[in-house]
Amino acid sequence: MAESPATLIEGIAKRYGSGSTAVDALEGVDMTVYPGEAIGLIGPSGSGKPTLLKCLGAVIEPTTGKFTLAAR
Ligand SMILES: Nc1ncnc2c1ncn2[C@@H]1O[C@H](COP(=O)(O)OP(=O)(O)O)[C@@H](O)[C@H]1O
Ligand SMILES: [Mg+2]
Questions:
Q1: What is the C-alpha separation between 72 and 63, in angstroms, rounded?
Q2: How far is the CA of 43 from the centre of ligand 2 (A)?
Q3: Does residue 64 surpass a pLDDT of 70?
Q4: Against a cut of 0.85, is the pTM above it?
C-alpha cells in the first residue's frame, strides 16, 4: 500500500477583509507532502507564501478548504 501523505492541503483559499478592499491571498491551493519530503515555497511578492504557512500553523484560519496534518 502506498505511504499516506504527512500533509494534505485541499482547495485552500484565504480572503483578507471584505467588500471593495478584500484581498484574495490564496485561491484553490492543493498540496500533498509525503513523509520525509522537504519542500520549498517560491513565488513573487504577493503570492501568499506566508499566508499558506500561517494557515498550516493554525495562526490564521483559511476562508475555505481543508488541511490534514500528520495523516497517518
Ligand atoms: N493581515 C493581512 N490583511 C490584509 N491583507 C493581507 C494580510 N496579510 C497579507 N495580506 C495580503 O495578502 C497577499 C499575500 O500576502 P503574503 O501572504 O504576505 O504573501 P507574500 O509574502 O508571498 O507576498 C498580499 O496581497 C498581501 O498584501
Ligand atoms: Mg509578503
A1: 25
A2: 10
A3: yes
A4: yes
